[in-house]
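In practice, a research group might receive sequence data for several interacting partners and want a quick structural hypothesis before committing to experiments. The following worked case mirrors that situation: the sequences arrive first, and a predicted assembly follows.
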Amino acid sequence: MTPHLLQALRDPAGVPSPPLVFLILGVATFALHIAAVQVMFGASALALRGAYSQSGHWRRLGATMLFTAKVAVSVAIVLGVAPLLFIQVIYDPFWYTSNVLSAWWVVGFIGLLIGGYIALYVFYWTAHRREAPGGRNALWMALSLGLLLAVGFIVHSLTYQMLFPERWMTWYAPGGTVQSGGHALHGWHLWRFSFFLALSIPVTGAWLHAHRRYLRASVRPDEAYLAWLAPLADRLLLAGGVVSVALGALWMGTLPPTMSGFARSPWPLAALLALAAAIALPRLLQGRLDRGYWGYAVFAAAAGALVVVAAAREALRYATLDGAHGYAALDYRVSVDWYSTILFFATFGVLGTATLGYLLTVAWQASQGEGVYTPSPAVNRLGSAAVGLLALWILAYFAVGFWVWAR
Amino acid sequence: MDMIGLYPTWFEPGLGSGWIVGLMATIHVLFSHTSVGAAIFFAALAHYAHRRHRPELLDFIRRYGLFLLVFSYVLGSATGVGIWYTTTVASPRGISALIHTFVWMWATEWVFFVIEVIGVYMLVYLANRLDAQTHLKVSLIFGLASYTTMLVIVGILSFMLWPGKADWYQRGGVLDAFFGANTFAHLGMRTAFMFAMTAVVGGIVAARLEDAALKREVARALAWLGLGSTLAGAALFRWYLATLPETARLLLENRLPGWFTPSVLAVLAGILAYFALTLFRPRALVAGGAAVMTGAVLVFGLWPEEVARESIRKPWVAGGYVYSNQVLGRDVPGIGVRSEIPILEARGFLKAHPFVPERLRVVDDANRMEAGRVLALVACSNCHSLGRTGMRPLPDYIPAGSKAPEIAAYLQAALATGTTLYMPQIPLRDDEALALAGFLAALPGGREAAR
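A structural hypothesis for the assembly, expressed as tokens:
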């Protein structure tokens, strides 16, 4: 595919805001999505481990992580919508071609996702039966984990195939004969996939530090359980961090020729430093982990590291497509649409912040205490503001809509 | 530019890519509409329950919410993403047109999705922990945020049929693309039917209530909701029909199968009878019956509706400028889009398509059949199966014994000129018309041939 052909595949309507905005939002929302995915994988693995353990602490952690995994799947799906949206805006030639070439896998992964999600729920619903002596069957959980891993691999492959426009025709029309069935996955990189999968371990370690901090704030914290949890979180963070960095190095060392220069760029180093900082943080904080909000800082640092990793991943894509294929995502034709641009940023920045701030505050505070929860007047006011903003948004929708209709 | 932006084609001979999208969309509509309707119903019911001190109604909300977690937020969210993915592979330029026009509207909807997901978990898992005022606020936020998702998506779905305002073609901009008479009629109709679905699906949960008096009360409330919203939906459907563009009305009258209207009327009558039954005999509400009714709504109500919505858009797939075969078929100066028909007329598909193998760019005796197959894939297969199975099989449209030159003459007369109402304009150069006709003539016999 020549740069000329790649340009031809772009949507002629252009993009409604500068492409850089979509690039940045794509990175930020991918980092959020992958954090949820990694918590989902880590929590699922811990739930599986807990199901086969006789230890009370392990079984307790397994039950909590099962609930965490269940919510994390929802969160991963909903957060995944945003990067899926933004990638289509500036990388449409690559995303659409890669998907069409493996169409059955694209359709199939939705079925696998539903299957994995339902298997998780089946395990969740039947968990109480396994509390009985001898009841340790966690096949549903293993099935769920397997299906969700398959989903992850397919999405990895679709994203990877984007980077090889020079092979698209070979995949689509091998020997000059068009094969339009979309039956094959054509490209993947096992070290790259393993790196992102392995990151689940340190991210889950960081999540356990936050979980520990959350439990500490409860009315009657279980000190023995908290003491058991701390070294486990540390081990996951450290060992998982080392494994991830090793796999990341293998990925960089096995980059195909069109990308190999990237390994010597500052991006891998930046990602390494960010991961190292997140791994080292509990050691730097030590006793402070149990004071104030420091317990949450470890997960915040891990999330920050994921943002850097996501930025590096984006830089690799940008550099490959620009350098090897002459496609600069940032030179997409801009045709500004002020109404929808302002609507999104106002909704996200004002309404979203107020409403999510209220919901998360209430959820966090209510689940820590005992008895019926009554929020403070300030939280109450935030809730009223959220309701008011939502009502105002709907009112504005109809006001603007009727005005346009009548115009 | 001498190349046009056509992508590779995915051809699925069994069902057809369009029907795979339709299946995914139909299932998703059931889940998502039920969820939005239920969210608003929850807010109203929570308000009533707190005012009248009826904790058992709050428990019903919690149980229905738990059911929705799987029904709507597992299956619904996965199929929602599924629509995007299936549309991507079935109609990449159609989804691209929507994405590039409405990216910020979709991103706005995403903010509400996030609020919605957190809201439903809170209503299920923290309902018993929140004081009345907080519970009400969370219910209200959940209900309002859910409805905003419908407000956003309806504008985009309406645009797929036709831009809100015809001026959009000249002026561009999201406002004229999004808002118009059809948008509001569409919104009204969907809002009404989403409450009907909420009432049907809610029956599955209400039927399992142990307290007989509560079950009676909830069954009747759902029946009233269902009756009112079904009747309102039927009235709003007529308004919706009145806002359709002329071409869509013609297609509705001439191209839909004969069973369509009786099927819609039968479904409406069936739903009304079901709600009347559960209103007057709440004991008749059983989980199995409600589940069967849910299935009936899916198969006999939503599937024909989605098929009809797809059919009346023909020959377009988005905004009245992207043909179903992915070619941009008209100028849209407002967004800088130019029709690709002149390029195809000048160069032909085989030379202007980026994904045609080099050996097929010039038709000769050796490659004519293969070139014809590729042309059929590119120009026809989005809507027509190339074999005996699947969606609208092409062999059904080829009279028995037709010769390639006769078919080529038909193609160049009826399709190349764009005079067939529901078909895209398909400009074919002489060599391409003969190649495509040769391929079509060689297809296994269709209905006509079998007679």
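Before designing any experiment, note the following. Residues 56-90 of chain A form the longest helix (35 residues). The mean pLDDT of chain A is 94.
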